[in-house]
Amino acid sequence: MRHIYTVLFYLITPLILLRLFLRGFKAPEYRKRWTERFALYNQKYSRNVIWVHAVSVGESVAVFPLIKHLQKQYSSDNFLVTTTTPTGSARVQAELSNTVSHVYLPYDLPIVIKRFLTVFHPKIVIVMEKEIWPNLYEQCSQNQIPLLIINARLSAKSAKGYKKIPGLVKPALACVTQISTQTEEDKERFIEIGAKDNTIEAIGNLKFDIEIDKKIIQQAQDLKAQLFSGRFTWIIASTHSDEEIIFFDLYPKLKKQIPELLLLVVPRHPERFEDVKKLAEKMHLKTCMRSSQKACTPNTDVYIADTMGELKLLYGTADISFVGGSMVPIGGHNILEPAAMDTPVIFGPYMTNSKEIAKNVVDIGAAIQCMDRLEIMATIIHLYNNAEDRKKMTTIMFDFLKDNQGATERTAKLISTLLS
What we know:
Layout: H1 2-23, E1 50-53, H2 57-73, E2 79-83, H3 86-96, E3 101-104, H4 110-120, E4 124-128, H5 134-142, E5 147-152, H6 156-163, H7 166-174, E6 178-181, H8 184-192, E7 200-202, H9 214-227, E8 232-239, H10 244-255, E9 261-267, H11 273-282, E10 287-289, E11 302-304, H12 311-315, E12 320-323, H13 336-340, E13 345-347, H14 355-363, E14 367-369, H15 373-385, H16 387-403, H17 407-419
Helix pairs in contact: 2-3, 2-17, 5-7, 10-15
C-alpha cells in the first residue's frame, strides 16, 4: 500500500505547490525556501546530526527544553530541527538561534527522502507527537537509523482514521524503534493501530516541563507598564478564524462593567493579522498593532500582536488569558504556557488536543472552561472583581505544573540509551 501512497503523493505534488504559492499571497514565508521541501539546499550542512522534527509552534515549544537538555549532554554533536510551517520555523529560529540547523521537513517522496538523508546523515530521528510518514520511516529502517516518536498522543478520532488504512500504518510503525506516549490511553491507542507493545511506553507530557526565564517575566512586567498602563488586559491567544468575532462582539458589553478593559489578540497564523485588524475596525473597535511599537491610548479597544515569537512574553503582560482554538472545533492549544507565566487561564469547549489536562485543571480549580459566550462574560466579570480568585487559580496551576514535570528527563534517558 505504501507504493500506492507514493504514486498518489507524486500526483498531488503540483497541487501542494500551488497551495503553497496561493498561501504566499497572505503569508510570504510560504513561498520562501520551498526548495527545502524537496531537500534542495544552497548551502552545506553538518552531517551525523541528532534530528528533531516538530510540526509547528505547539510541538516546537514543547520540545525546546528537551533539545537544550540534549545539547548540554551531547555538546560535541550537531543538531537539526525541522518544522512544517513558517510559524514553527520562526519559533525555532527565535528560541534556538544558531545553536541548531533548521530546514523544512522534506516531502515524503522516496527520492526526496534519500536526498535529505544523504545531506544530513542523521544518527537518530526524533519525531514529536504523531507524525507518521511511511517513506521516511521505511528509509530510516533500511539505513538502520533509530527512530523515536516522543510525546506521542493519539485521539480516538485519529485512531479511528488510522485503522482504516492498516496496510499503510502498520508497516510504518514497524519501522519505529521506540514510542513514548503522554498517557496510558495514548499508549493503548497506538497499540490498537499497529504499534508493538514492547516498543511503547507512557512516560508523560513534555509540555509540563516548560522553561520560563526570569528575564522574560521582568520584560513582561516592563512591557505592561510601557504599553498597557492602567488597563485590565485580557489576552486571547492563538486564535483561529471565527473566534475573534466572538470576543469582539463581547467586548462592548464587558466594557460597560470593566471600563479599563483591553483586548490583546494574538492570531495563530500570521497571514490572518490584517484580516483580524479589518474585522475589529469593521466592528468599530479602535485598534493598535504590535508592529507599530506604539503604546495603547485610553481609547484603544484591541491590541493586535502581529509579530512572531512573543506569545510567552505577551502572556506575562495579561491579567487574564483565554487560549484559542477552543471556541471552534480545532481542539485547543497549550494552556500550560500562560499558566507558567502566572496568568489565570480560561478556555472554551473544544479541547480534544489536551483533553486530560483540560479536565484535570478544571477539576482542581486551576483553570475555567467556558462553554459559551454567556459563561465567558460571567467569568471575566467575576475574575475582574475577585483578585483573590485569580491568585488562587495561578497558585493551584503552579503546583499542578510542578507535580507533573519530569517527562523531559525520562525522554532524554530513552534517547541516550539508543544513542549509546
